[in-house]
Design goal:
The protein is of the alpha/beta class. It contains 15 helices and 5 strands. Strands 2-1-3-4-5 form a 5-stranded parallel beta sheet, sandwiched between helices. The chain is elongated and about 90 Å long. The termini are far apart.
Amino acid sequence: MNGKHSYSILAVDDDATNLRMLHEILNPAYKVYAAPSGERAMKFLEKRGVDLILLDVEMPGLNGYEMIKRLKENPALASIPVLFLTAQEGRDKEETALRLGAVDYILKPITAGVVMARVNLHMELEIYRKRLETLVSQKTAQLSDTQNSILDILASVTAWRDSGTGGHITRTTAYSRLIVERLLEKGHPKYTISPLYGGNIVKSSKLHDIGKVAISDSILHKPGRLTSEEFDEIKKHTTFGAQMIDDAIADLGDESSFLHVSREIVISHHEWWNGSGYPMALTGEEIPVSGRVMAISDIYDSLTSERPYKGVMSHGEAMDIIYRETGPHFDPLLIDILQDTFPQFEEIAATQHSPEDEQHIRRGKR
């Protein structure tokens, strides 16, 4: 252990003598708190955390079995290890304690040697668990940073192949983040998304056009209107991108949700609510939520940004088109949910620029 009183224990027992004994046994090594009832213990835990709980089973009012049930139902308290203290013997009592989540079972009358040995063992296990959690959290953060860096690189490759600027990726990611935040905040039975899924939508939005790396420059950079054959070729960027991600999933054996959400976005962000989109002509709720979110972000930025074949529209002009296309192109419910969010799109369009965008602005091209 790391010195006296580095770790704390809550002893819960309706017998004052037992509480004094536990304090005398454990106080040389631990900070020991005492509660004479389950109710007092729960109130204590609302204000202060501990590293381990010694819990008497037979108490008036809230007994040990009932208290541990409450502990396990509370996410903030569920991980605290609980050692039962009881005069009851029998395998059924021990099985009940372990089934409810206790880590050990100490019979009364207690002895100093047994109590200290059991407490030391489980405290060491708890310290190890916390250190392992910290290490996993650090490694997860490092992995996330690496993943985000790779995403940025891939997004930059896509952006430079398509338009020579990363501004489109920056802005569409920001629009998608606003939409996700709104859905998480407001909620709706048809748009109930988890924070994990929402976060994956935001991260994956950077990859929505990754399939364009397989499209020829002559088509991507053509200043005029595309022929029907050329437009058919452009449409393939959705399936090309999905194939790339399928290969990544196969190679990595990815069991997480991230790459699967990326694939959803890549393959479905050009689908239309009425089924006239591509590549699969999905209709309505067949279109993944991630694809519906990306469609709004992508279209808004396309309308308010310069392209080889068009000029820049104002926020109002772009929103007029989006509202006009609600029903045919966009989910009417999603557009309705986002009413209060769209004004923030204009702020992003005006401020979120890559260095290359700034050059366009200085030259009067935006």
